[in-house]
UniProtKB/TrEMBL annotation:
Protein name: Protein kinase domain-containing protein
Domain Protein kinase: from-to ranges: 25-313
Organism this protein belongs to: Centaurea solstitialis
Keyword ATP-binding appears in the UniProt entry: yes
GO molecular function: ATP binding; protein serine/threonine kinase activity; transmembrane receptor protein tyrosine kinase activity
BP terms from Gene Ontology: defense response to oomycetes
Membrane topology listed for this record: Single-pass type I membrane protein
């Protein structure tokens, strides 16, 4: 037992520090409450430093006891994932003059609180809802399909109020106090146990036979997916009686009448394919038969596809908006000459074949160790050109508006600094590395462009969508083929359709 408690010694926080941080659990520090007690906000030091945190103060009268308290500590300290809420500490002390022990869990502070508060908000976009659901799916996949020596974890209480949201709308699954742990190397995990969970979210089969499986979590997550789609909780009270909406939602899906239940503020935002994939996987999660419910890894994969469809839809809409705005501003300038999109970070053009070309500004995609940015005559970007300083530098270039099915070249666009070495620019030596490749590449030829800049080809690929992310590490500066270093200023990374 001592070994068990010693494992968590680094998480212990003194009660007096918590009392000071919460002004002795003052009402104006309360940020939430539930069946367990109240949650308070305050700033405190912990094993990761000092930050704003959330204090979950357990009320022994509310039913969450000693076993749930220690299980939460054990689970969140051993299982860490970007979409699981982080445990920063705990307190288990007797308070002088009070009966019982103060049991307090200390979590990372998530400023937007829980998903249930935002379901009916028109400001929570369809894209944000997709990404929130995807984040939870990633967390559940991590718990259900562990790696290495970890055991499988069944959450047992998936619901929108247990999905917390940080300032960037990233999902954080919380409340593992009711979870169950099973072997990792078994295809099927089942527990005969007392039924716990929240009405409306609990798997009907679990309620009927008291057998908990990972498919029970899948069912509960399917309910959350429909909540995100419909913009409301999965239940209502009619004449004081609890009424679940899940059966209605399933029927409307089967009758192909989703339009009657979808949150109306989302209708104009949705890509049809994104909606079809999302609603289908949500319905599959709610299947009566365990065997017909998909594993969480499959659910996660489908949500990733739904997100990609929605991203493409929104990117194309952005292009149309920018193009229309450009035409309205100056009908005399054809789109082939280019326009700034993506808040001025991308120069977008379309060639005679209608193929898209993107130039991502250096300020947007470069992460230099040493160097500076400045404006340059005839550059398409204001204060967006990187002055190469002879040191290694990294680029992360994300193209958003590519033409699918087109062979593209990826190019470094640069020019020589005025007054610097201007020897024959067509032969040079540039060493760079793409993504996670172990070997470096070397380019030897640069080409002049009609716009007055130079261009170095780094890579070729065939686009399978409108987006691509590339990481490029430049290990040294440009060298003349016959010796001597070039001093250059970089405008950005270009994705250009290859000439055939």
């Amino acid at each position: 037992m001592d070994l068990f408690f010693n494992e968590f010694q680094h998480l212990k926080i003194q009660l007096q520090e918590i009392i000071s941080a919460t002004d002795d659990f003052a009402d104006d520090k309360v940020i939430g409450k539930g069946g367990f007690g109240k949650v308070y906000k305050g700033e405190i030091s912990h094993f990761k430093g000092r930050s704003m945190v959330a204090f979950k103060r357990l009320d022994s009268r509310c039913g969450q006891g000693n076993s749930e308290f220690w299980k939460e500590i054990m689970m969140l300290s051993r299982y860490t994932h970007e979409n699981l809420v982080s445990l920063l500490g705990y307190c288990d002390e007797v308070r002088e003059g009070r009966e019982g022990r103060e049991k307090i869990l200390v979590y990372e502070y998530v400023s937007r609180r829980s998903l249930d508060r935002h379901l009916s908000a028109p400001t929570l976009t369809w894209m944000q809802r997709l990404k929130i659901c995807l984040g939870v799916a990633k967390a559940l996949t991590y718990l259900h399909d562990p790696k290495g020596t970890q055991h499988r974890v069944l959450h047992r209480d998936i619901k929108s109020s247990n999905i917390l949201l940080d300032e960037n709308w990233n999902a954080k699954l919380s409340d593992l106090g009711l979870s169950k742990i099973g072997p990792a190397n078994q295809q099927h995990t089942a527990f005969v146990t007392n039924v716990v969970g929240t009405p409306g979210y609990v798997d009907p089969l679990y309620m009927e036979n008291s057998v908990l499986t990972k498919e029970s979590d899948v069912y509960s997550f399917g309910v959350v997916l429909f909540e995100a789609l419909c913009g409301r909780l999965c239940f209502k009270y009619s004449n004081g009686q609890f009424q679940s909406l899940v059966r209605l939602w399933k029927r409307k899906y089967k009758e192909n009448k989703l339009g009657e239940i979808i949150f109306q503020d989302l209708m104009q935002q949705m890509d049809a394919s994104s909606l079809e994939i999302f609603s289908n996987i949500a319905y599959q999660c709610l299947k009566t038969s365990l065997e017909k419910r998909p594993p969480m890894a499959h659910v996660m994969a489908k949500l990733e596809i739904a997100c990609r469809y929605q991203e493409t839809y929104e990117d194309n809409a952005a292009i149309k908006t920018e193009t229309t705005s450009h035409i309205l501003r100056s009908a005399e300038e054809p789109l082939s000459r280019g326009i700034l999109v993506n808040d001025g970070k991308t120069w977008f053009t379309r060639n005679k074949k209608g193929e898209h070309c993107e130039l991502i500004s250096a300020r947007e995609c470069f992460n230099p160790i040493v160097g500076e940015y400045r404006s340059e005559e005839n550059s398409r970007f204001v204060l967006g050109n990187y002055v190469e300083s002879g040191q290694s530098f990294q680029a992360h270039a994300m193209a958003r508006f590519l033409s699918p099915g087109i062979m593209y070249t990826v190019n470094l666009v640069f020019k020589f600094l005025p007054g610097k070495d201007r020897r024959d620019p067509t032969r040079y030596h540039l060493k760079y590395q793409l993504g996670e490749e172990t070997n470096c590449s070397i380019s030897y030829l640069a080409h002049g462009r009609e716009d007055g800049w130079m261009m170095v080809e780094l890579y070729q690929f065939t686009s399978d969508s409108t987006r691509i992310d590339l990481d490029i590490g430049f290990e040294n500066h440009l060298y003349h083929a016959f010796g001597g270093r070039f001093s250059i200023i970089v405008e950005g990374i270009e994705f250009r359709p290859r000439r055939t």
